[in-house]
């Protein structure tokens, strides 16, 4: 059996994951990173994207958005705005959100609409991450 690290994923609504895992990969602002058992202490900001973890030869994925991650004492803790499992994602709603965000960004690019660019881009990234986790037509 592989060595493990304790994973905690916490949102403002409460804990989402609390278990021992073999590997965690997450989207940091400096790029995607991986953490194994006994990783050196670190702190990272987390961007919108897909976090995955492996346990007993199976992989689980979560859509996470914005927050922080800390690794210390063989534990990795994510404090994020939201975390969703694939089975909890409303795919139709995510597709509609993706289309809305793409239309708003396209209209803004043509100077037809004045929008909050960062907010529209974040909405698009959340929708794409949800679709990737649900395996329904999002980017890989």
Question: Would you summarize the structure shown here?
Answer:
The chain is α+β, with helices and mostly antiparallel strands.
For this entry, give a set of tags.
single chain; 140 residues; alpha+beta; ATP Synthase, domain 1; Single alpha-helices involved in coiled-coils or other helix-helix interfaces; 2 domains; eight-stranded mixed sheet; 2 helices; 8 strands; elongated; disordered C terminus
Write the layout of secondary structure elements.
Blueprint: E1 5-11, E2 14-21, E3 23-28, E4 31-36, E5 42-46, E6 49-55, E7 58-72, E8 75-85, H1 91-109, H2 117-134
Helix pairs in contact: 1-2
Tell me what the structure shows:
By secondary structure, this protein is α+β, with helices and mostly antiparallel strands. It has two domains: 82 residues, F0F1 ATP synthase delta/epsilon subunit, N-terminal (ATP Synthase, domain 1, Sandwich); 45 residues, Single alpha-helices involved in coiled-coils or other helix-helix interfaces (Up-down Bundle), CATH 1.20.5. Helices cover 26% and strands 46% of the residues. A hairpin with a 2-residue loop joins strand 1 and strand 2. Helix 1 runs antiparallel to helix 2. The longest helix has 19 residues. The two termini are 29 Å apart.
């Amino acid at each position: 059996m592989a060595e493990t690290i304790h994973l905690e994923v916490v949102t403002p609504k409460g804990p989402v994951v609390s278990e021992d895992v073999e590997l965690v990969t997450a989207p940091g602002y400096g790029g995607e990173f991986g953490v194994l058992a006994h990783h050196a202490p670190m702190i990272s900001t987390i961007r919108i994207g897909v976090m995955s973890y492996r346990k007993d030869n199976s992989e689980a994925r979560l859509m996470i958005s914005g927050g922080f991650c800390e690794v210390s004492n063989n534990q990795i803790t994510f404090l994020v705005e939201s975390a969703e499992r694939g089975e909890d994602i409303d795919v139709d709603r995510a597709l509609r959100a993706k289309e809305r965000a793409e239309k708003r960004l396209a209209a803004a690019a043509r100077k037809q609409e004045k929008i909050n660019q960062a907010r529209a881009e974040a909405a698009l990234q959340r929708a794409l991450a949800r679709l990737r986790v649900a395996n329904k037509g999002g980017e890989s």
